[in-house]
What does this fold into?
Amino acid sequence: MLEFVVRRVLYSIVTLFILSATIFLVVRFTGDPVALMAEASARPEDLDRIRQQWGLDRSWPVQYLTFMQNAFKGELGKSFNYRLPVSELYFQRLPNSLTLGLVATLISLLIGVPAGIISAVKVNSWWDNVAKGVALLGLSIPGFWLGLVLILVFSVWLRWLPTSGAGDWRHVVMPALALGWYFAASMLRLTRSSMLEVLGSEYIKLARLKGLPDVVVIAMHAFKNALIPVFTLAGVNMVVMVNAAVIIEVIFAWPGIGRLLYEGIFQRDFPLVQGVVIMAGFMIVAINLVVDILYAFIDPRIRLTR
Amino acid sequence: MATIPANTRLASERAAAGRLRLVIKAVREAPQAAVVILGGLMLVAIFADLIAPHDPTLPVQGAKVFDPPFWMEGGRAMTLLGTDFQGRDILSRLIHGARVSLIVGLMGTLVAGSIGTAMGILAGYVGGWVDQIIMRVTDAWLALPAIVFAIFLAAMVGPSMWNIIVILGAVYWTRYARVIRGEVLTLREREFVKLAEIAGASKLRVIKRHILPNVMNTATVLASLTVGVVIIAEASLSFLGVGVPPPQPAWGLMLSEARSTLMAGQWWLTVFPGLCILLVVLATQLFGDWLRVRLDPQLRNL
Amino acid sequence: MNVGGPDMAPHTPQRSSRPGEAAARLGPVLEVSDLQTHFFSFGGSRVVKAVDRVSFTLHEGETLGLVGESGSGKTTTCLSIVGLLPRAARIVGGSVVFEGEDLTRKSQRELRRIRGRRIAVILQDPMVSLNPLFTIFRQVAEPAFFHQHLRGRSLRERVQHLLRVVRIPSPEWRMREYPHQMSGGMRQRIVGAIALAGGPSLVIADEPTTNLDVTIQAQYLDLLKDIQRETGVALIFVTHNLGIVAKMCDKVAVMYAGKLIERAPVRELFDDPKHPYTRALLGAVPKLGSKEPLYSIAGQPPNLANLPAGCSFHPRCPEALPRCVSEEPGDFHLGDGSVARCWLVEGKNEAGAHRGRARS
It folds into this structure.
């Protein structure tokens, strides 16, 4: 068990190392950030001064090492534009993204899990076909377009909900729905297949052979087993949604980390972009690590098969 | 017909009837709606110059800005689906946008599929430290949400259609690599591969003759399911302004341009490009699902 | 002619006086007659006769061995008895009379009250037949909870008693554990306890020892026999292991391609198998220490979706007659209590009135 945890942690560190190196190299390979940042009329001496100021005159390995050292201390550099530490900007925006991600996760669960269960229990029925259609649409409707259509319907035509910004619950409904839509479909698919797998298992057969009522078989024996992978995925999805909501946050002017990334891109603020992207990678690697270890604790069979 | 004999039928027919007939047959059995949409769209994309009533990048002579579709008050037959903020014809832009979407969708998938399949075979068949390196890189790149990674790369590299193709290829190859590697690991243990190795075939030859043909089904299924994802990713990048640059007619770009006037209620600017994306992606999904059942029933959970 | 006798099987059948012999006069616990279960696929356009006119009877305290290759319809026969068939399958004919009631005429609701209480089933693989997320207590208690409405202390005592019956050490502790904390042999005994929980008069054991190793297997079989001796429960033992049949069973029924091709008291079957398929099966029993190659039956197992005309076994039968190709044999009742569905036995020592006729 300990060996498994240690190995898994080591893998995560290697993953983060490769990820940070990739981001670092991409930023430096794709052109001189200083030249992009500065005015076109800037003189070479000015550029040199800026380079020196940001430590860009040193060799790449040195830059990378400094960068990593600082990252370990929780410092992700200083934003060009805001003249503030990236971490400060990041953690200022993070709560908003967490709120959005949480609500979107709840929406995806509320749509996906009941629909998935119904379609598994009544497999190949009318219900099942409707659910399959919803799952297909979930993958085919771009979330950001859904967001635009929601604005059109609920803000422009019906005037029920505000179009943008953060505030009370009415601000979060549309972005969360637009964000959670795709994930609702994946929840539905997973719930359905997981439920079908459990319903076909021998222990469900034995439960039926015991003469238990169908309600007990489905609601108690099958439900619990089928939902373990579903809730695990929901947890991972939530972290992904917190980090991947860039377009939704832009459309709804939601002040989260996705919008921070977007601002960074348009202001050519590469320490900011680099920092936000690395934090996203870090969060997702961390949640995957946690999920794997938790799983190993919950389910001893996993320990044996790895 | 049952799905199990499909493979054997496929193999015997390939020898007897040749590929063309197989393709025709496959198209006939495929979901009709998906084939019609995809086929129609390809024709539209190829002959966009002939079909489109106006130049997609220039204002239509005699039309105003924000003309509504023809059935609404103020709409005209000249610009069937209305005009945008520069007075350009929406329909013509949609038609030319199909070309951008399909080129990026297909080429991006091709790039991702080629890199991913090659890396997957390399990792699975060669094994050892090659496998370790490729799989660690795959893990690392998969840790970022695809769209964040793509936005990051696009922002750094700069907007152009061909850049987007390469970027999306670079983002999505990792998924292929994982699946293909798994497939190769089981293939490697199969008898015909062992026999070829014992007979002294070189690694390259084993890969060419035995591994590659056997992972092609999986790669094709993955590709068919990736096209839609890549199309949405391109639209997202263009929407954010880091994808296909204006004045090119890309659906994502059209949505982005429509956003500023969304509050004014000019819904046609937003609804039509989105419907186009929805239709294409839906069609590729349907087609991909069908292909998966037909070629590779084991890939159910992808 | 005598391909496999009792001396060739690993165990000789040993029969003492069984409670079943006395109780036999009270009428059978289970009487299956002409049972037909079909699978319908492709909207009913394709029909697979998974169970085709199967008949047998079972008395209190008796054990019937149901033998055959995989896919011969053994499991479907069992599931038909308890009325828990897959969606595509349906009983289309015959009857299953259990303690005087025809189960094929009962609703699922009525069947539910019989399942787990009066008829229990032990499934094949103990590693997967327990719910991994529930304690042993809960899983053993369920039948008593739902059928006998036991609660609280009496339920706990009942579970402990059941676990003691299946020889689980320190049941008061063990019942709080989860399945993964137990060995395969122990889990199968838990499954046995679940089967006994409702106090059944019939237990169907579907290859209950295939996934256990040999010593555990022997222990488990001894346990089942002891329980049967004490409770007088009737047992259907599905297996492909003829050694187990010889050790455990009073009668044997051999299935091939959905049909019961031979049934006989166990001694008669081993001494004088009537059907060529039974003879081939007996020949296939590996002998301990024998250097002879394993005799296996030539040809492919039958495809139920596409059975040959006439006797289903004729393509593989070394003794097939011309009429076997076209005419399907019916049951021939023979003097020594065996029944065989084979043209070869026609007229041989037949028990007068029951002349077999193939029904189409």
